[in-house]
Design goal:
The complex is a heterodimer of chains A (163) and B (785). Chain A is an alpha+beta fold and 163 residues long. Helix content of chain A is 32%, strand content 17%. The two termini of chain B are 47 Å apart. The longest helix of chain B has 21 residues. Classes of the chains: A alpha+beta (163), B alpha+beta (785).
Chain lengths: 163, 785
């Protein structure tokens, strides 16, 4: 059965006809073409499908789209919608914090979200904040460093490095 | 000292921390992976499998599925349109199901939801047959024969004279000296057995493809998550019935592979091509994680039986071993991989007498294939644990035993290859012993363990080497295309593929160096089989060391063409022209590094002039290395042109009450020759350490009669950011005349020693011989019983 979903995605009001049992991940990708949100496991373990819902990270592969009425959803596309990179994206590039890139959107969002909750996060707290995302390529070290650099304000608001 | 120097000014862009050229689209989420492709009129393709194996399928009832609105096509293995066997041993579809990944029918539907319903509605009837799942059972005299081509054992060795389950093409002997005589002169001889399980590459992107027809000319196009696009094209051409010239394979951004996206993506694209032929519509196929685990190849499990002997002074005189791996039901890898296992079967040691036999055995399991290391993580684990046991038996320090036996310049390897190049392994060992404070920690941990009831600490060093590239396994040839455009930007392409490892950036640096241009001028065009020729596979950590040789050649030739142009312009000779930062200039002999003189011209201006003057601006070059003189019957000869050397020290803390292993620190040293991009090398090493940690502690495909029990990441446990140890990396640069700009391998060496080092540290902590991986909770508790 189809239903109408009205919600806010990346600051835009969206009204979209969806399957009643559709996953948020499928609505983002198949209905709305927001392809930066990836599917890695489908069971909420790998974090490749991470989005931010009402300020908190969530796995969109285990989120029922129909439950998203009147929510504030942000995907990786939100970050560079004005053409500029978010400091976290800059920091990932500068720290070589990515290889194949498939998990990268999820990690970038988790990194931003954990610093929003805890701007002075310690390295251990950063590791914990990223532990819902799996990366098979990097061994996490350069990702942690990328988040630490943003925490340490090595990037100013327009995304350029202060160093 | 051969430590990598960050401020080495020998090169302009080589050895510098150039940012990845594919990073921007990846952080923005705009990089297009195969599953991100959509097309008008596209159908979703899927597979029907059964849950017990081996089995003979007798009937498939599709009537319920056909009645579901939105189901467009169903092709069963009994359908006349079904293509069964692929060129590479695996089946697109079959009624003789041999393992969990075998497919009995394929379906195309209008939506994913309808597809899922249809798959569940297919009724398959089958007769279950007697299966064989372990190497031990497969080698029994009365074992059911799984494959027609399997052979048996005669006098303990594979022989075509008898039927059995041995994959004869994967048998490689090594015969050096005389082990019988060698053992006679030994004061100490030990025998040990080791076992390792199937594990998964576990790339986060599952296999995906889109197959469609090019409306212009009717040729079939597949866009795929292929590690090796040309290899995948063979399946596309075969399944569609098209010629290769009418089968086009485009590699999309690859979400990790580590050796896994070879045969699995091949049969997938074949199935999609069959559905495309039947429906005339674009077919998209995306594996779920569960399907990926069932269908894709795994790291081979091995059973190792080793015998080693040494004098009481610690000189190893003889080594004898049998290395048997579990191939699964089909295989197109073990016959190549086991050659590498055999070459490295005696470790990085100079042993005068070596006799080893390596072969694979068919079982009704998922197939063994390539996974980062191509047998080295398994062999090094067994080999290095064996050395630790020998040291214990001799009453000798583990490191000293290694020091007495390691390969040095002018040593002869197990294959009797004379190592003529510089070897800095001992220097690397000393540097790492020093940095990690090895001996103090060893003593400290042993003291700690005497008094600690719940926790035990351990530290261990392992050494190894790795043949770079394909060596005598194949011909390491490759081609590359470099074309400059009129605005001074340059397009480079090659038959080798970016798989996430950083190949694009490394190749861009290798092209930029001779051309004297900056990285931002270079665009890497990823593999499209209609736009570039086959260069073999992106495997064996060959990309930079061997695969970039043609890129270097092509860039050098184009640079020469440009230099000739500039020389003519300034009425001088080519040898007087140099280039950097997008300028070509006449070298002022008084100020050789100064190019701010009048006699300079911008690269873009030369390109523009040549373009409008009808002059050549593009170069294609081919590289074929000299062939290695190797005898595959005796396992003797030159196996590889050059080797990467590796030293790894791991430290662990084991909770013996619950069996958990905490890896506290890994110090890893790699001699990879010239470092092309330090940050990329470090990224490979960090990733390699953490992948090795998973191999050592948590990862194992659990099987019950060939069925995979842990088929997603909630039960197949990968390391997270919470599990990583402190990591200290040391890059060494030895000198080699082989390899592009003297670069050796990085990707696989980064991980191959780690599992062994952790197992060694656990052995030290528990004072036990860790004889299998992973060091799971259960196995630690068993050691402590």
């Amino acid at each position: 059965m189809k239903i109408q979903l009205n919600t806010t995605i990346n600051d835009l009001l969206v009204s979209v006809e969806i399957e009643q049992d559709a996953r948020l991940l499928d609505v983002l990708r198949d209905n709305l073409g927001l392809l930066g949100t990836k599917e890695g496991c489908g069971v909420g373990e790998c974090g490749a499908c991470t989005v931010i819902i009402n300020g908190k990270t969530a796995n969109s592969c285990i989120t029922l789209a129909a439950s998203m009425e009147d929510c504030d959803i942000k995907t990786i596309e939100y970050l560079s919608k004005d053409g500029e990179l978010h400091p976290m994206q800059e920091s990932f590039i500068d720290n070589s914090a990515l290889q194949c890139g498939f998990c990268t959107p999820g990690f970038v969002l988790s990194g931003i979200s954990l610093l929003e909750r805890n701007p002075k996060a310690t390295t251990e707290e950063i590791k914990e904040g990223l532990s819902g995302n799996i990366c098979r390529c990097t061994g996490y070290e350069q990702i942690i460093k990328a988040v630490e650099d943003v925490r340490d304000k090595k990037y100013n608001k327009d995304g350029a490095s202060n160093e | 000292m051969s430590l990598f120097e960050h401020n080495n000014n020998k090169y302009k862009v080589i050895g510098k921390d150039i940012k990845r050229i594919d990073a921007l689209e990846k952080v923005k989420g705009t990089a297009l992976y195969a599953a991100d492709l959509y097309m008008d009129g596209m159908l979703y393709g899927g597979n029907v499998r059964i849950k017990e194996y081996p089995a003979k399928v007798t009937k498939i009832d599709t009537s319920l599925a056909k009645a579901i609105p939105g189901v467009v096509e169903i092709i069963t293995c009994f359908d006349s349109r079904a293509k069964k066997h692929s060129w590479a041993d695996y089946c697109y579809m079959t009624d003789e199901v041999k393992f969990c990944g075998d497919v009995v029918a394929i379906i195309a539907a209008e939506s994913k939801k309808v597809l899922d319903q249809a798959i569940k509605s297919i009724k398959v009837e089958y007769e279950l047959q007697k299966g064989v799942y372990t190497v031990e059972d497969a080698l029994k005299e009365d074992a059911p024969i799984i494959r027609e081509k399997g052979v048996g054992l005669v006098d303990g060795l594979p022989s075509r004279e008898k039927k059995g389950n041995i994959f004869i093409d994967s048998y490689y002997p090594v015969r050096k000296g005389d082990v019988v005589e060698g053992f006679k002169n030994c004061d100490v001889i030990i025998e040990r057995e080791y076992n390792v399980p199937f594990i998964d590459q576990a790339y986060i992107e599952t296999e995906a493809c889109l197959v469609y027809c090019d409306p212009k000319d009717g040729s079939i196009t597949g866009e795929s998550s292929a590690q090796n696009p040309f290899f995948t094209r063979r399946y596309l051409a075969e399944a569609s019935g098209n010629t290769m010239s009418e089968s086009r394979l485009i590699q999309r951004t690859l979400g990790g592979s580590f050796g896994g996206k070879e045969e699995g993506v091949g049969v997938q694209i074949g199935r999609a091509a069959i559905l495309h032929k039947a429906t005339g519509r674009p077919i998209k196929m995306v594996n779920s994680r569960e399907e990926s685990l069932m269908d894709s190849s795994k790291r081979h499990p091995f059973n190792f039986k080793y015998k080693i002997g040494a004098t009481k002074e610690g000189k190893v005189l003889a080594l004898e071993a049998t290395l048997i791996d579990n191939c699964g039901a089909y295989n197109n890898q073990t016959q190549f991989m086991n050659w590498r296992s055999s070459v490295h079967s005696a470790g990085v040691y100079e042993i005068p007498n070596v006799k080893t036999d390596t072969f694979g055995v068919f079982t009704n399991n998922v197939h063994g294939g390539a996974m980062r290391g191509y047998s080295s993580p398994q062999v090094i684990f067994a080999q290095e644990q064996l050395m630790n046991e020998l040291a214990k038996e001799l009453g000798m320090d583990n490191v000293e035993l290694r020091r007495k036996n390691i390969i040095r310049q002018n040593s002869r390897t197990a294959t009797n290859q004379l190592i003529t190049e510089e070897v800095i392994l001992e220097e690397m060992m000393d540097e790492l012993l020093n940095r990690s404070n090895y001996y103090n920690k060893k003593n400290e941990y042993e003291e700690f363990n005497k008094n600690s009831k719940s926790f035990k600490k351990g530290i261990s060093l392992v050494t190894c080497f790795r043949g770079a590239g394909l060596g005598a396994e194949g011909i390491d040839a490759n081609g590359a295309f470099v074309q400059a455009t009129e605005d001074g930007s340059v397009i480079i392409s090659t038959g080798l593929a970016e798989n996430g490892q950083g190949l694009q950036t490394a190749f861009a640096q290798i092209a930029a160096e001779p051309l004297g241009i900056t990285i931002d001028k270079i665009h890497f065009h990823s593999v499209d089989t209609h736009a570039i020729a086959d260069s073999g596979m992106t495997v064996a950590s060959r990309g930079t060391t061997m695969g970039a040789q043609s890129m270097k050649k092509a860039a050098e030739r184009l640079a020469l063409i440009i230099k000739e142009h500039v020389a003519k312009k300034f009425c001088t000779t080519v040898d007087k022209i140099d280039c950097k930062d997008n300028y070509y200039y006449v070298v002022d002999e008084n100020f050789p590094s100064n190019y701010s003189n009048e006699k300079k011209v911008a690269f873009k201006d030369i390109c523009n002039e040549r373009m409008w003057g009808g002059e050549q601006l593009a170069v294609y070059e081919w590289f074929k290395p000299e062939l290695n003189d190797y005898n595959h019957h005796t396992g003797q000869g030159k196996a590889f042109p050059t080797y990467t050397y590796n030293v790894c020290i791991a430290e662990v803390e084991v909770d013996i009450n619950i069996g958990s292993v905490n890896v506290t620190k890994v110090t890893s040293g790699l001699d990879c020759g010239t470092v092309i991009n330090p940050n990329t090398v470090r990224g490979q090493m960090f990733g390699g350490i953490v992948m090795g940690l998973g191999y050592a502690i948590t990862e194992e495909i659990e099987l019950n009669k060939g069925r995979i029990l842990n088929d997603n990441f909630d039960s197949y446990i990968l390391p997270t950011s919470m599990d990583i140890p402190e990591m200290d990396l040391v890059l060494f640069e030895s000198i080699t005349k082989e390899g592009t700009f003297g670069a050796k391998s990085v990707g696989e060496p980064s991980t191959e020693a780690v599992g062994a080092a952790i197992a060694g540290a656990v052995s030290h902590a528990l004072n036990k011989n860790v004889d299998h991986l992973p060091c799971s909770l259960e196995s630690i508790l068993k050691y402590m019983d």
